[in-house]
Amino acid sequence: MSTAPSICKFLPLDPQRAAALRVFAAYYARSLTDPELAAVFLHDEQPLERLVAALIAAGAAAGGAVAGLDPQYEADLLVSGAIGLGMDVVHGRRTLADVRAVLDHHVGRLFPQTNLPQPHPNPGLSS
């Protein structure tokens, strides 16, 4: 098992996704000063977070996840982390491999019984 495919959609895996992240960031920045545009970002619907939370809950129900997790909190962290780390790739602060290793680490923390590849420590990443 590797990083959840739904989470990887926020990573700049190709030039089209890198451009999409740049456009997203530009609109998001503009939404901080434009109330009409802010309404696009400030809604209660969170379909990706709900999907990831459902996957975490299903893993917990099957006994594969760490006991006592809050699936929604973990999903919020994974989705937000993937978006932020994806922006780091766009900015050249991190490599795609480094970001995948970080996400795999967190997914592995949630699902310790899975066979995630063990990333090598990267001194360029803060722990």
Overview of this structure, please?
By secondary structure, this protein is mostly helical. 62% of the residues lie in helices and 0% in strands. It is built from six helices and no strands. Helix 4 (47-61) packs across helix 5. It is flat. It starts with a helix and ends in a 17-residue tail after the last helix. 24% of the residues are buried. The model is unreliable at 123-127 (pLDDT under 50).
Report the β-strand fraction as a percent range.
under 5%
Mean pLDDT reading: 82
Count of extended strands: 0
Structural class by secondary-structure content = mainly alpha
Determine the oligomeric state from the structure.
single chain
Helix content: 55-70%
Instruction: Output the helix-strand order.
Output: HHHHHH
Cα Rg: 16 Å
Global outline: flat
> Main sheet, how many strands, which sense, barrel?
none
Distance between the termini: 23 Å
Number of helices: 6
